[in-house]
Amino acid sequence: MPTxxxxxxxxxxxxxxxxxLLRNPLSFLLSLPARGDLVRIRIGPATAVVACTAALxxxxxxxxxxxxxxxxxxxxxxxxxxxxxxxxxxxxHRRQRRLLQPAFHTQRLPGYAQTISTQVAATxxxxxxxxxxxxxxxxxxxxxxxxxxxMFSNSLxxxxxxxxLDDLTAIFAVLYWRMLTPPPLDxxxxxxNRRYHRASARLRHTIGSAVAGRRAAGVDRGDLxxxxxxxxxxxxxxxxxxxxxxxxQIVSFFIAGTETTALTVAWALYLLAEHPAIEQRVxxxxxxxLAGRAAxxxxxPRLRLVNRIVTETLRLYPPGWIISRxxxxxxxxxxxxxxxxxxxxxxxxLIHHRPDLYAEPDRFDPDRWLPERAxxxxxxxxxxxxxxxxxxxxxxxxxxxxxxALATIAANxxxxxxxxxxxxxxxxxxxxPRNLALRVTARTADRTPGEPGRRLTSxxxx
Length: 462
Hints:
Blueprint: H1 18-23, H2 25-31, E1 38-43, E2 46-51, H3 54-62, E3 67-69, H4 71-81, H5 90-100, H6 109-124, E4 132-134, H7 135-152, H8 158-180, H9 191-217, H10 224-229, H11 243-257, H12 259-274, H13 276-290, H14 304-316, E5 323-327, E6 331-333, E7 336-338, E8 343-346, H15 348-352, H16 371-374, H17 395-412, E9 413-417, E10 424-427, E11 431-434, E12 437-442, H18 458-461
Parallel strand pairs: 2-8
Antiparallel strand pairs: 1-2, 3-5, 4-12, 5-8, 6-7, 9-12, 10-11
């Protein structure tokens, strides 16, 4: 790797920059642009180059022929998850994307949204006035049940559903650690390794049993699993995916679609609790529309502030906060030669927090996405779901789910922070809010008969 690319300071023998990536990775990433547009880091014995500008990140995202899925993070991710759409190399991606795209067509969103609304209403309907809730755990319950129901309709027995949710939680707990540690450590008989291997094997068995049962029944239930099983190559009546490929796809969707959306809603609720004036505006927007009922897909066009809050939350806390690619050939990036086989890293979190791209980048400001202000934001500077051919296929599903959940919760509950430990991002595969417990207060007293809420002005709604 060319010596003209500066190296981040304080690399340790053998470990390189692994410790700052484990202890305080966000601060470490934000320190890199001061070193240059491209900065070299070391993760154990491996070397990687971090792209620190929006232009270089866009170049990586838009050329998946040269910058393929792979590198330090994705190679380990693929070992754990198989070759689903989110992790497979380019040679498999275009075929998989073409076959799976109909399952995520926007025409299917209203049907999926009905499942989302049902699951949100069922979860928050069990809360008690004054209850203190573990927000990430509650949101994981919503998104996990939503995705499992959307995938399998009601064909998965309740015990299997609960076990699948527990297994997903166990897998999420160690994903980032396993991405940064060498593979031989996976085989050590530690409690964490045993728990992970049991959860992973059990989840794949649960999914495999459901797939085999659905194939044998030959019934189209109108869910995601039916859509995947019905996929065919053009001009062929042969099924497109083997059972193993279907399992890989479903595992990938669970990993990409459960925790990421859950944590987006959790962060949004935290931000509203921290900004009561904005929470008040949310109530003024949603009360005339919902009056306490669950939000539906048809309501979303009238919930413009809610949608902007989801957008701003994804900017502040993007789910895929650090991503790697592998160079498939020698290439010049930012004027530097990158050899074939090199790992190239980019970070949506880093791009979203650059002060030259976003005014006051650490401030929660949903109104930066008002049309007249959003026009000033660079076209390629907002990348919570990546970009190019590898942009996440379920991005509309995820943002729809987040908006419906946020609106339904805010229509019925106020969120109050508890005194004590500050909420900080706990860095894992996603950015999880550490210490996030909120007290929920029922909003029934806020709404009097005939007065669902103050109507927003056109300027406030945007």
